[in-house]
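re: that complex we talked abt at group meeting.

here r the seqs, copy pasted straight from the sheet so there may be weird spacing, ignore it
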Amino acid sequence: MLTKRIIPCLDIKNGRTVKGINFVDLRDAGDPVELAEIYARTGADELVFLDISATEERRRTLADLVLRVAEKVNIPFTVGGGISSVEDVDILLHNGADKVSINSSAVKNPQLINELVAKFGSQCIVVAIDAKQMDGEWMVHLVGGKIPTALNLFTWAKEVEDRGAGEILFTSMDHDGTKDGFANEALSKLSTELNIPIIASGGAGNMQHFTDTFIKGKADAALAASVFHFKEIEIKDLKEELKKNNIPVRL
Amino acid sequence: MWKKWSCQVPKGYCRSNKYVHRTTKMKIVIIDYGAGNIQSIKFAFQRLGYEAILSKDAEEIMAADKVIFPGVGEASSAMKKLRESKLDGVIPKLNQPVLGICLGMQLMCNSSEEGSTQGLGIFDVEVVKFSKEVKVPQIGWNQITNLKSGLFKNVKEKEHVYLVHSFYAPLCGETIAEAEYGLGYSAALKKDNFYGTQFHPEKSSEVGERILENFLEIGN
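got the structure back, here u go
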């Protein structure tokens, strides 16, 4: 049976992890490769690297990082952040990334999804969508939720699927950072209306939240950062708990 | 050539950071025809202590001890690239162990529904698309069962492997591992010296590493 995936997300700036990482056993707390290796060993199903650098050298630094991760890590990983062209994707996939995630660039130029899918295949194109509710309607936002767009979450998600994306990474800006649980109602609607996998993101605070997002939210995968980085939740314990709740996991 | 320190645990479980020189030389060639996540496969062998060569040169491929035929993306365009490299005639004639991975495996079948592609006809089966009853593509870790052949030596039934695909090879006489996604299908195929896995051993953690090592241990 296909299992539900647990995905730690690493925020990367200039080739280093950001956000406090509370791993006492890390030799170098800012080294994404070392952290990725630990996650791979301790039961993560997949990893996401989200680049938030804004420097000129960003592209090359990220491409180098991908190569170093691919060399060491024996589970799949996705790279996102500032990817806006076929050339960007080409070098990242060539260097060993399994999937790339695009966000703002897809909203600005939806045709980019079709171009990437035609060249690299659906299976490696993830579209990340950040959204929050405005007057009761889920609206797509850009730049980490700062800039609202006129796009409705569900309309945009359907378009993303129709254009051939292989997967959607949905982050609720209303839930992100709250540790109050995932946006299960919206997730469930996405999962029911669409026929591609949905990754839930934003709001993970405890193990029950993961159970809820897989059952109530019908998510195919759940992504979180701080609860894993600060060891508030160990992935192995989380998977044991999910298994007890009859959720299929890889243990 | 580096090899993990050989400790007294099953292969793939050895977590020591110590490395020693591998004594035997094996020529592993990964077919580089422009349609594969070849870097990841090269690195996977490197982690196992083997140096794999990327090549699209027919003579180099024919001279290899082991051949890896990777593939990601869309079937008809990958097949077109294979034809342009003139390797479509080379692969079916290889005598050494050949391992097709993901789309590589699918191209070794008779045909694929994706882009109405004619395959290499090594495996006697037609690749078709998953139905709308399930989410397509299938992405993630699924279990493999009914394991046959040395490729799965020391691999337990129901181990998890990483898969990402929209098309599949139905169960057939050449199936050596099964997976279930709405229906049972071929997770791996074998005919004579040809092996194919729908899953990505290079991304399937310790289980995948064991399968790659098993492949390398298959005699020519």
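couple things i noticed - Chain B is about 20% helix and 30% strand. The first helix of chain B runs from residue 38 to 48.
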